[in-house]
Design the sequence.
């Protein structure tokens, strides 16, 4: 099967500090890839590069056979086929939930308000958020806000979803509701790249787990192999620390 | 603890376990208000007494607070002041729009927008470096002196234009502070759903930015409401000019007091409103973050 997304030799430095060195990654359609690794290893940066929110220094990011990192590509167009959800939700606080969701479809795709709202309500209903449609984000729980952020990203009907530690800002009792939404997306066949600290979730949902260390993907394997039989000493160390912390 | 106070704990939460602090008690609140009122009346009364009892007072009253001259000068001063109000309103609308445009240009990123950004920054730096009065004189007298065909010679027009140019530069900086106060992640989230830079600014960043700087904008209102009187140097017959003319004719200063009263009637309520708004805004933010 042709890869949905192919990342080749991606390098990214911030002010001379190399954050991604030579990253290669393939994601096929309907595949779920989890990125794990210690803080600062470059997970968020990689996701932002895929979404062109951060320009890369060199390398290729091939989406559906097109190098989207090449010059002359309109990033706004690319972003419409990808959704990204951030750790801090980043909902627009001055807009109602429904307007947060319809803003993209209305302004980017020019869908009339009525139609955009009807679709948004459909999505909200699917994620059990319909009663929050007219609330402002500040009044929702963290879990609800994050689910709205996911709905907002889905409103553009993306074919690829990127998640950046979407549960690490949540109270423990709210984590499950968000993870269940992502599980639901997997069942629906969504292609996803997920940076996460939730190892149990990664083991459960991923088809492929990538261990990122100091800007390179040091090891990647199916979850049962990567968690059960890690090959690289750095991976073993990292997982040992997680086990010691009681999180696996 | 008796059952009574247990009920209170249920009703008021754990606070009920501690003695109520003074501002919460109605009696003490009333006493506080009484003390405040008494001391205010006392201090003001004392100041008034000092002034009225002084030997110079009759003379001061004649020159500054003459009821006769007040009545005489008021109609002219008031109609001139009405021009001030109109100048203020027209100028303020233009300023709010132009300044926002400049601030948005400054906020655009990427090399393609560099020339625009340079123009915006140059404009702001130049204008802010000049005394506003200089700009008014330069444009109000200078441009009409050129006798350019098809260009108005109205000092009123050029005076207001100078005010608009000047205030737009300052107000653009106010907006810019507001735009910078909106967290970078909001811009990123806006871009991530496919909005262009301009759309992200317009729909996501600027609405939040404006909310953050409304108090500063209101302060600008108060300041402009007074500064419109500067066009009096061009001979425009606004409120201050009319007061000046009356004074030149009668050598009595009450006309200035009449103008002062009119300016205060407008600016004090705006200042109070600004304070009230700022306070409410702060309390709201505290309530949101707790
Ligand atoms: N905009 C930026 N400017 C400068 N340095 C940055 C920027 N963004 C990220 N970095 C640096 O890049 C490195 C990788 O950061 P990144 O956020 O990608 O790590 P991460 O794996 O997501 O970590 P975490 O698990 O803490 O989220 C860090 O050292 C960080 O300080
Ligand atoms: Mg991160």
Sequence:
């Amino acid at each position: 099967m042709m890869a949905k997304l192919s990342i080749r030799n991606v390098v990214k430095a911030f002010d001379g500090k190399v954050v991604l060195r030579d990253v290669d990654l393939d994601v096929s359609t309907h595949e779920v890839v989890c990125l794990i690794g210690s803080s600062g290893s470059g997970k968020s940066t990689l996701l932002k590069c895929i979404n062109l929110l951060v320009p890369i220094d060199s390398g290729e990011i091939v989406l559906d056979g097109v190098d989207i990192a090449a010059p002359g590509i309109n990033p706004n167009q690319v972003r419409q086929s990808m959704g990204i959800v951030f750790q801090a939700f980043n909902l627009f606080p001055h807009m109602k939930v429904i307007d947060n969701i319809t803003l993209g479809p209305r302004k980017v795709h020019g869908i009339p308000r009525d139609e955009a709202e009807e679709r948004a309500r459909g999505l909200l209903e699917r994620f059990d958020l319909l009663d929050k449609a007219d609330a402002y984000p500040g009044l929702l729980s963290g879990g609800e806000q994050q689910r709205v952020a996911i709905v907002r990203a889905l409103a553009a009907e993306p074919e690829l979803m990127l998640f950046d530690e979407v549960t690490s800002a949540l109270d423990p009792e709210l984590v499950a509701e968000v993870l269940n939404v992502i599980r639901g997306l997997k069942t629906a066949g969504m292609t996803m790249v997920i940076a996460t600290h939730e190892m149990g979730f990664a083991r459960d949902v991923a088809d492929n787990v990538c261990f990122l260390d100091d800007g390179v993907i040091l090891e990647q394997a199916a979850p049962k192999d990567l968690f059960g039989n890690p090959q690289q000493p750095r991976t073993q160390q990292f997982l040992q620390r997680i086990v010691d912390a009681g999180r696996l | 603890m008796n059952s009574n106070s247990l009920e209170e704990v249920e009703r008021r939460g754990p606070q009920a376990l501690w003695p109520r602090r003074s501002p919460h008690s109605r009696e003490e609140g009333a006493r506080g208000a009484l003390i405040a009122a008494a001391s205010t009346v006392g201090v003001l009364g004392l100041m008034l007494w000092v002034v009225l009892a002084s030997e110079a007072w009759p003379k001061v009253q004649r020159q500054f607070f003459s009821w006769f001259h007040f009545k005489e000068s008021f109609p002219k001063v008031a109609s001139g002041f009405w021009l001030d109000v109109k100048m203020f309103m027209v100028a303020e609308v233009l300023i709010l729009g132009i300044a926002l445009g400049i601030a948005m240009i400054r906020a655009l990123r990427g090399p393609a927008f560099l020339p625009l950004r340079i123009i915006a920054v140059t404009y702001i730096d130049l204008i802010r470096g000049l005394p506003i009065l200089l700009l008014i004189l330069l444009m109000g007298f200078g441009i009409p002196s050129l006798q350019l065909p098809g260009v108005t010679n109205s000092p009123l027009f050029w005076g207001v234009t100078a005010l608009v140019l000047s205030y737009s530069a300052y107000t653009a900086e106010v907006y810019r502070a507001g735009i910078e106060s909106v967290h970078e992640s909001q811009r990123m989230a806006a871009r991530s759903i496919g909005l262009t830079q301009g759309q992200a600014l317009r729909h996501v960043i600027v609405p939040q930015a404006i909310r953050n700087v409304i108090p500063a904008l209101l302060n600008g209102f108060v300041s402009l409401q007074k500064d419109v009187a500067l066009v009096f140097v061009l001979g425009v017959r606004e409120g201050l000019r009319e007061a000046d003319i009356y004074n030149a004719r009668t050598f009595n200063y009450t006309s200035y007091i009449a103008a002062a009263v009119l300016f205060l009637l407008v600016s004090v309520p705006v200042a109070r409103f600004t304070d009230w708004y700022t306070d409410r805004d702060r309390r709201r933010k505290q309530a949101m973050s707790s």
Observations:
- Chain A is about 40% helix and 25% strand.
